[in-house]
Design brief:
By secondary structure, this protein is an alpha/beta fold. The protein is about 55% helix and about 20% strand. The strands form 3 sheets. It has a 6-stranded antiparallel β-sheet. A 6-stranded mixed β-sheet has the order 8-12-13-3-14-15. Strand 14 and strand 15 form a beta hairpin. The longest helix is centred in the middle third of the chain and has 47 residues, at about 335-380.
């Protein structure tokens, strides 16, 4: 629901401020006075594309502020601080900017918020009303939450069936290349499993090759080191340290400090013995066998060959082999996999049919009820014998939106052949059909939030006389528990409003003014006769208002 609207430098409007209340508000004024700019300002706040040509001549920027009351339960991707939100749009000569509660926001945020603020019905909606998608949307909306759940289930089933079909087609295409792929993968996997490379083996083989290649140098160097430790006939480091240690042990009783030194010497002696033993073992195991060296080189070449084009190291190679085996299992058991995918597709298609039948049944019930209710409204809108036919035709194949195509037909009178909306129907008839649908949806469909505003731009175009009065009556019914804003040229419609805003133009400046009851009579007189001063027109206007008030008291 919109509470306030502030406009600056937009089109012919230099500055305007208007407050809106609940119920039905009409906006009237001479052609060219600026009613369109008021709607344009509202549409800017709802995220419509900005047009720099709408900036008032001689100004650099147009600014529109709106205060909206938003449903606190609205599902948004961002949090609003409270139910009243200030939406601002600034349109410059080169770019536009958007704000929510005075904070910069992307225009996409306004687009997301818009469905929770207002529904705008203009003459362009007559074009949309002709589309099958729009007609299906209206029928499903009329069907309520239960129907919406069926739509949701069908779309999920359709999406799953489409994916199952894609998976099956992809697998069938791969069958032609299965033998070639198997011929490539199987030998490679067998070689990897036979070679059985281990993590870290590359480094170990490189070190072993280095040792064997330099075995003689290693043997010579370590033999000298071993002799230095052991010596010939007890002349090595270890024997010397043993002699030194025994002498220290003999005198340590004379000074406690020597015991610590003796202990350290024994530790060193044990460590040196261990080092000498390790050198001895290394010399014993030192392998200079050319055959072993050749084996090491061959294994390294084999590992490198398997890595090439598949992985950078052995762990990655083993992972490649695991994945290749899984792929081989699928390929070598492709008949089973094919049968599995075919069964999945069949089951998915069955779910489409079953969910589609439930949706079709719901839609047929809703279509019959919707047609009857709209016919009643059209009769009241001076289309006594008109019928809206919601035609549900079974498709040869299921589609993304159901098992049927939905088309709305209008039989304008008994002798006319039913024709698709927009084919043969006048603009006035389409306006009345659109209004009748909206009234029926509001009163008999799923109730929308009281926070939502309905905006009608000249919904009475092409309508006059008694039909115009009935348009006003239905707009008033629609506004009983929601806010409705209407731009109209007809006094018969404007007379039904709870509040009346007139847009006037003096020179290059437009003003927006809320009217008192007396001022309303003057404006209605102008709308009826084109003259504000005509006493006859004023009397007619006052009579019209009296009749409307009496009718409203019984609504």
């Amino acid at each position: 629901m919109i509470e306030e609207l502030q406009i600056q430098n937009l089109g012919v409007i230099e500055s305007a401020h208007v407050e809106f209340g609940p119920g039905l508000t009409v906006l009237t004024g001479e052609t060219g006075a600026g009613k369109t700019m008021v709607l344009t300002s509202l549409q800017l706040l709802l995220g419509q594309r900005a047009d720099s040509s709408k900036v008032r001549a001689g100004e650099s920027e147009a600014i529109v502020d709106g205060v909206f009351n938003v449903d606190p339960n609205a599902q948004l991707s961002y949090d609003l601080e409270n139910e009243n939100v200030i939406v601002t749009r600034k349109v410059g000569l080169s770019r536009s900017r958007a704000y929510l509660d005075r904070r910069p926001a992307p225009v996409s945020a306004l687009n997301e918020l818009a469905p929770h603020l207002a529904v705008v019905h203009g003459q362009s909606d007559q074009i949309e009303l002709r589309s099958a998608a729009r007609q299906r949307e209206l029928l499903d909306r009329f069907g309520g939450s239960a129907n919406r759940e069926l739509v949701k289930n069908y779309r999920a089933a359709w999406k799953a069936a489409v994916q199952a079909k894609a998976d099956l087609d992809e697998f069938r295409e791969s069958l032609a290349e299965a033998e070639s792929e198997i011929a490539q993968l199987r030998p490679a996997v067998d070689k990897i499993r036979a070679l059985d490379p281990q993590d870290g083996e590359e480094e170990e083989l490189a070190l072993e090759a280095e040792r064997i290649t330099n075995a003689e140098q290693l043997r010579t160097g370590l033999s000298v080191a071993y002799q230095a430790f052991a010596g010939d006939d007890g002349g090595g480091i270890i024997d010397a340290l043993g002699v030194a240690s025994s002498h220290v042990q003999r005198v340590e009783e004379y000074d406690p400090k020597l015991a610590e030194i003796s202990h350290r010497m024994l530790e060193q002696l044990v460590e040196l013995e261990s080092v000498r033993s390790d050198i001895s073992d290394y010399l014993s195991d030192l392998n200079a066998d050319p055959a072993r060296l050749e084996y090491v080189h061959q294994r390294r070449r084999a590992i490198t060959s398997l890595l090439r084009g598949r992985a950078l190291d052995i762990p990655s190679l083993l992972q490649w082999a695991d994945e290749a085996e899984q792929r081989l299992e699928a390929l070598e058991n492709r008949d089973d996999k094919l049968a599995e995918l075919e069964a999945e597709l069949k089951a998915a298609q069955h779910r489409v049919i079953e969910s589609g039948r439930s949706l079709s049944e719901s839609r047929m019930k809703a279509a019959d009820k919707l047609s009857k209710l709209v016919d009643t409204e059209l009769a009241g809108l001076s289309m006594k014998d008109a019928r809206l036919i919601v035609d549900i035709k079974r498709r040869e194949k299921p589609g993304p939106h159901g098992l049927e195509d939905i088309e709305m037909l209008l039989q304008a009178h008994r002798d006319a052949n039913p024709a698709p909306l927009g084919h043969g129907a006048s603009g006035g008839e389409l306006s009345r059909v659109m209004l009748a649908l909206e009234v029926v949806l509001a009163e008999h469909g799923e109730r929308d939030s009281g926070h939502l505003t309905y905006v009608f731009d000249e919904v009475d175009a092409g309508v006059g006389g008694r039909a115009a009065r009935e348009v006003g009556r239905r707009l008033a019914r629609l506004a009983k528990d929601r806010q409705v804003l209407v731009v109209t040229h007809l006094a018969q419609v404007a007379a039904w409003a709870d509040s009346h805003v007139v847009i006037t133009k003096e020179g290059a400046t437009t003003s927006v003014t809320a009217l008192s009851e007396d001022d309303r009579i003057v404006e209605l007189a102008r709308m009826l006769s084109g003259s504000e001063s005509s006493q006859t027109a004023r009397a007619h206007a006052a009579e019209l208002r009296t009749e409307v008030k009496v009718a409203q008291s019984g609504m």
